[in-house]
């Protein structure tokens, strides 16, 4: 970015932050403006008061007391407002930071599933998260910058009356800082993305050391230190990026400091040479010395504006790139779902993961997709859901092409239980009500869902019932893998969507509970369409139809008995289990 570009970006960012602050908290913005403006005109008023006082030198008490009182009052105002503007500024910043954080989290929550988990999305979110503090501070920097300009202009006018050259030089002394800060901003802009990426990688590694599941595995293996080393190496890479910037900032600070000193020295010389007598010199010197503080504060505030601008741009781009979440509405009913001749190729791969794949199911049926690892079951499911776009073929729900529906509406047909189900360490109630997009559920509904998923009994044994905190890292109760999976299944029961997709819903659950869970699924199947992925032969016995996938194709389909009697791929895969 050029210097002009950096200034333009800073202006854009400033306008954005003021608009946002005005919309969110006009009262606090006004308070900040008043505090900083009072502070801004105080130095010029002090120059006038000093000049007035100096003119009364050798006069009577009646002459020198009023300017003395005025000067003292101004010093007091300066002190008080300095403190007050800081406090008001900080409170404004805190409010705005919370507001931006809330907006960011809602934006992340509204991300379409296809964007979730992409490397670029995660890096951007991480970058935005680490910018929240600066975003909150931006508006006070704008107000402080305007204040600094007002200070400089007022000083220029008052010092001009003593020495025009000095008046000009007091303002010119702002320039070195502004130019250097614009250059620094360009450097920071370039470093922002790689730094965000390395910070994200570091956090990921640290998270593995801290989060209960991985920390336990690492502690057992005794190899946590390996991950600590990975985290350390990543942190060093991130630090090296910042370090390079800091070296540049130190050098540029020296250059701008020297330039400012020379210009203010010139202003002092102007005052001494051109100052009209002792009073003028005294007032001029006060003006120039106030200029030192104003220059520093202007440089600091402008620097913030310029260096925050890229972060604001990245934040805005991200927030505006996500359409406000269209609330997913759970559909009441679906009579049929069908995938016809789906072919899907992942980006970067030349071999389709599924080819010409057709499956269909009707209300009241439970169908199964089976096949060895990598056969294409998950790909098929994700395409039916709309998370993957097929190269060819179509998915229809009740005979209507599903691509005609916005994704949120399409997802309203489905309840999906994946193998990577979440282990949300919240209260039981919060963990279950996540199943519904609006999060609303009565306790009765939650208990019903828990019972259907065979999780009711162990939840009843918890001291706090639905209010029990889950997860030992928060002092809550630790659960077994199977118990977590039952809670995930309870979410699907609570959701009550018309099409359920259950990817190995009982993989972590003991045989007895597995039987009960499948019996329950069979008992309630008339309410919905159920698609199950399963690797356990016995669970497939009651299925209405089974599709056998092999290298992305359906190579066989039929009922359990038909497939066993055909003695082809299905019988081969499950040979050991049915023996
Ligand atoms: N994100 C991806 N990018 C590229 N290829 C992928 C991706 N996900 C899966 N594949 C490939 O697509 C093929 C089908 O994978 P898929 O995950 O659908 O199999 P699966 O039957 O669900 O396997 P499993 O039983 O292990 O869950 C595999 O060859 C896999 O390597």
TrEMBL record:
GO MF annotation terms: ATP binding; ATP hydrolysis activity; ATPase-coupled transmembrane transporter activity
UniProt-recorded name of the protein: ATP-binding cassette subfamily B protein
Pfam families per the UniProt record, alphabetical: ABC_tran
Domain ABC transporter: 339-576
Transmembrane segments: 28-52, 64-81, 138-160, 166-183
A GO-annotated cellular component: plasma membrane
This protein's UniProt keywords: ATP-binding, Membrane, Nucleotide-binding, Transmembrane, Transmembrane helix
Chief location: membrane
Keyword Nucleotidyltransferase applies: no
């Amino acid at each position: 970015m050029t210097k002009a570009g950096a200034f333009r970006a800073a202006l854009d960012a400033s306008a954005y932050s003021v608009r946002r602050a005005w919309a969110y908290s006009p009262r606090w913005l006004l308070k900040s403006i008043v505090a900083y403006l009072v502070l801004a005109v105080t130095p010029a008023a002090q120059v006038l008061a000093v000049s007035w006082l100096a003119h009364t030198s050798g006069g009577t008490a009646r002459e020198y007391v009023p300017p003395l009182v005025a000067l003292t009052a101004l010093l007091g105002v300066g002190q008080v407002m300095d403190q007050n503007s800081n406090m008001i500024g900080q409170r404004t910043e805190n409010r705005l930071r919370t507001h931006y954080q809330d907006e960011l989290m809602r934006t992340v929550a509204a991300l379409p599933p296809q964007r979730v988990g992409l490397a670029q999305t995660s890096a951007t979110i991480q970058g935005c998260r680490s910018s929240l503090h600066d975003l909150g501070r931006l508006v006070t920097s704008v107000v402080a910058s305007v204040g600094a300009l007002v200070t400089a202009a007022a000083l220029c006018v008052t010092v001009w009356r003593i020495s025009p050259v000095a008046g000009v030089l007091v303002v010119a002394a702002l320039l070195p800082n502004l130019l250097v800060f614009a250059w620094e901003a360009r450097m920071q802009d370039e470093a922002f993305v790689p730094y965000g990426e390395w910070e994200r990688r570091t956090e990921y590694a640290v998270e593995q050391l801290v989060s209960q599941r991985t920390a336990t595995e690492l502690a057992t293996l005794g190899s946590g230190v390996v991950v600590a080393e990975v985290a350390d190496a990543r942190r060093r890479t991130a630090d090296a990026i910042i370090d390079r910037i800091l070296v540049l900032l130190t050098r540029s600070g020296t250059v701008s400091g020297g330039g400012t000193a020379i210009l203010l020295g010139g202003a002092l010389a102007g005052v001494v040479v051109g100052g009209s007598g002792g009073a003028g010199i005294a007032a001029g010197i006060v003006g120039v010395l106030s200029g030192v503080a104003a220059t520093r504060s202007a440089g600091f505030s402008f620097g913030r504006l310029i260096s925050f601008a890229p972060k604001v741009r990245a934040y805005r781009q991200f927030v505006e790139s996500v359409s406000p979440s269209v609330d997913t509405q759970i559909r009441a009913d679906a009579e049929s779902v069908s995938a016809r001749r789906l072919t899907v190729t992942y980006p970067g791969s030349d071999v389709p993961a599924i080819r010409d794949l057709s499956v269909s199911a009707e209300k009241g049926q439970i169908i199964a997709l089976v096949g060895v690892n990598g056969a294409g079951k998950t790909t098929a499911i994700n395409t039916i859901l709309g998370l993957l776009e097929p190269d060819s073929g179509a998915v229809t729900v009740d005979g209507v092409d599903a691509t005609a529906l916005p994704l949120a509406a399409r997802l309203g047909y489905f309840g999906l239980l994946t193998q990577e189900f979440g282990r949300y360490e919240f209260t039981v109630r919060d963990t279950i009500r996540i199943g519904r997009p609006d999060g609303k559920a009565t306790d009765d509904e939650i208990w019903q869902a828990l019972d259907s998923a065979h999780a009711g009994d162990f939840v009843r044994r918890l001291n706090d019932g639905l209010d029990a905190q889950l997860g030992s890292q928060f002092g809550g109760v630790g659960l077994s893998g199977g118990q977590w999976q039952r809670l995930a299944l309870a979410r699907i029961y609570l959701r009550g969507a018309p099409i359920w997709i259950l990817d190995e819903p009982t993989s972590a659950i003991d045989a007895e509970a597995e039987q009960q869970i499948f019996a329950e699924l069979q008992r309630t199947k008339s309410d919905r369409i159920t698609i199950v992925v399963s690797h356990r032969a016995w669970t497939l016995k009651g299925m209405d139809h089974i599709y056998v996938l092999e290298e992305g194709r359906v190579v066989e389909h039929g009922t359990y008995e038909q497939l066993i009697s055909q003695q082809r791929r299905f019988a081969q895969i499950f040979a050991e289990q049915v023996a």
